Structure to design on (198 residues):
């Protein structure tokens, strides 16, 4: 019965992840359509973003994907709850670091008046207005997903410490890891779309 419950939870998680992929897939299609219409403006607007910040956040999230995967491995294969806790804690710290970098980046855009409906942005060409509208919408939605993921991983960490998650009962941690990988994959698409336009 417990195995059936775990299987149902995993299927439910995959269905949820598919719905999230459809959501972001629609946004990626919208981005592609507008970029095809306004390639010059999109390129010009992308020069306003910090490639260093984007690259740093990519490295942070890729590392966090590794640590969350290793945490599951440590718990399930090596039966080490302590190491799993350390790795989940590292993943949470990396997720927070991602949000800090993104917060500084958004703060810089706001300081320069490059945010939706600002007078500075509205004075720019239509394509640049569209670009920054999509940038804030898509990276903002992604940041919400990061925050939700951090919440899920924090709950998993607490349950690990209380021995509610074990090598035999690890569905919550595994599903949290799957969700975190989705967050990372979405960023892998966002990074080149916004930061590496040529």
């Amino acid at each position: 019965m417990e195995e059936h419950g775990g299987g149902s939870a995993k299927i439910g998680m995959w269905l949820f992840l598919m719905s999230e992929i459809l959501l972001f897939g629609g946004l990626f299609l919208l981005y592609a359509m507008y970029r095809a219409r306004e390639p010059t403006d999109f390129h010009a607007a992308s020069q306003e973003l910090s490639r260093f910040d984007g690259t740093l956040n990519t490295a942070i999230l890729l590392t966090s994907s590794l640590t969350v995967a290793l945490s599951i491995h440590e718990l399930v294969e090596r039966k080490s709850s302590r190491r799993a806790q350390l790795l989940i804690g590292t993943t949470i710290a990396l997720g927070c670091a991602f949000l800090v970098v993104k917060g500084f980046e958004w703060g810089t855009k706001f300081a320069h008046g490059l945010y939706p409906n600002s007078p500075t942005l509205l004075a720019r060409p239509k394509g640049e207005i569209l670009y920054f509208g999509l940038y804030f919408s898509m990276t903002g939605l992604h940041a919400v997903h990061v925050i939700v993921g951090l919440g899920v991983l924090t709950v998993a960490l607490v349950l690990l410490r209380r021995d509610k998650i074990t090598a035999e009962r690890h569905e919550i941690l595994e599903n949290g890891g799957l969700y975190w990988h989705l967050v990372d994959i979405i960023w892998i698409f966002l990074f080149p779309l916004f930061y590496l336009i040529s």
Q: What stands out?
A: The mean pLDDT is 93. Helices lie at 2-37, 39-46, 51-76, 81-111, 119-122, 126-161, 171-195. Residues 34 and 130 are 7 Å apart (CA to CA). The chain has one domain: 2-195.
